[in-house]
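Protocol step 4 of 5: obtain the predicted structure for the target chain.
Materials: sequence only (see below). No template structures provided, no constraints applied. The aim of this step is simply to have a reference model before the mutagenesis design in step 5. Sequence pasted as it appears in the construct record:
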Amino acid sequence: MTTQSCWNELLDIELSLIGHCSEGCIKRFHDEPANHEALVSYVRGLMWKS
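Step 4 output (structure tokens):
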């Protein structure tokens, strides 16, 4: 992997974390709930770690 491709990969991850991209580009958790309230419980309950 070249240095530029490494930087591009890191930038993609950073943008997905801070939200400067369309919703379809955001990396999702396995079995992530679609409902907002269920998603909040999912993330805060650390269920994504299992």
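Step 4 remarks: The mean pLDDT is 75. The two ends are 30 Å apart (CA to CA).
Proceed to step 5.
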